[in-house]
Amino acid sequence: MKKKRCLNVLMMVLALFLVFWSTSVFAAENLSIASGKAGGTWYPMGGAIADVVQKNLDGVNMAVMQGTGDANIIGVNNGMYTLGISFSFANADAVMGQAQFKKAMSNIAGLAALYPSPLQIVVRGDSDIKTIADLKGKRISPGLKGTSGEVLMKNILQVYGLSYGDMKKVEHLAYADAAMQMQDGHIDAFMPFTTVPAPAIQEIAVSIKGGIRLLSLSPDKFEALKKINNGYSKYVVKGGSYDGQKSDVLCVGSNNVVICRKDLKEDLVYKMIKALVDNKAKIKDVHKVLQEWSPEYAAKDLGVALHPGALKLYKEIGVIK
Predict the structure, then answer these.
(1) Quick check: is 308 in a domain?
(2) pLDDT of residue 19 exceeding 60
């Protein structure tokens, strides 16, 4: 009898524990962030953001999903993801429902700008291609179809009075594949939209005699691009960034940005951005391009209006008046 009573008590304790555990699990708020593909900067960036949010907000779980810039925007807008990493110029297109976006994305808002990236137009150091206009009749790889970089490259060609139809060949390849094709002499130029220095470019630069050359954008063409999309920014790649690249080069840049669903509660977004600002050292540790990241940088040039919760925090700490 005594053993039976002890067993019953044990069963009751176990049942209470299971009820408490299941209630806690299901009560937790499950969030997500759409980042980038494994091997890029966005994926570990998404992991760092998720870790900071999960550790500093009670009752929150955050999953990291692999994605791509434009798909991340659409996913956040449609409620598939809580947060997403994207480009500022793509955010501007999304809000307007233009370029690659078939309709306006009305459920996205800005959380934080992270760091700038340029689109780098790469040719061999021994190439006869000296300017962007010289790409006419050449074999190019502007990036995978529909990606933010490919859309930007089409706009660059447009302001120079060119299109894909003026090219000898257009190959839509991943950056690593494009680098290999250039190294083997099968393409004349490729255009990675990524950080500086870019591993794919470095690989070519050290393997080709004479290294590589980056094509510079003329200031008037940059102004023409700004009329297409105000989310574009200037980015100067310093001379010496790659073997063979001796001079500074003007490229078109865009901020890498964290966006969120516009319909999120103000308090939740406020707490998320506060956690990121309070733990900025962890964000900076992800990649050297983030070494200069600060709340002041985070609050501007996102290509989309800040979420009220983020705006409240930035005003509270004085980076927005």
Answers:
(1) yes
(2) no
pTM of the model: 0.76
- Do 138 and 86 lie in one domain? The reply is no
Structure tokens at 275: 């956690």
Mention every residue, 6+ apart, whose C-beta is less than 8 A from residue 36. Answer: 42, 43, 45, 46, 66, 67, 68, 69, 85
CB 48 within 8 A of CB 282: yes
Q: Look at residue 157 and tell me whether its pLDDT is greater than 50.
A: yes
Examine residue 308 and say whether the peptide bond preceding it is cis (omega within 30 degrees of 0): no
Whether residue 249 sits in one domain with residue 124: yes
Percent of the chain whose pLDDT exceeds 90: 70
DSSP β-ladder status, 139-141 and 169-170: parallel
Banded model confidence at residue 126, pLDDT cuts 50, 70, 90: very high
CA separation for the pair 21, 14 (Å, rounded):
10
Domains in the chain, number: 2
Mean pLDDT confidence for 108-128: 95
Q: How far is CA 224 from CA 15, 64, 74, 193, 214, in A?
A: 68, 37, 27, 19, 20
Q: Is 104 left (phi over 0), alpha (psi -120 to 50) or beta?
A: beta
Q: Measured between alpha carbons, how far is 266 from 181 in angstroms, rounded to an integer?
A: 48
* Structural domain boundaries, residue 310: 2-116+256-316
Distance between the two ends of the chain, CA-based, in angstroms?
73
d(CA 294, CA 44): 18
Return the CATH number at 199: 3.40.190.10
8 Å CB contact between 103 and 244: no
What is the token pair recorded at 199? 């591993």
In a domain, 321, yes or no: no
CA distance 154 to 160: 10
Last residue of a domain, one of 235, 254, 273: 254
CB contact set of 194 (below 8 Å; sequence gap of 6+): 40, 41, 117, 120, 175, 200
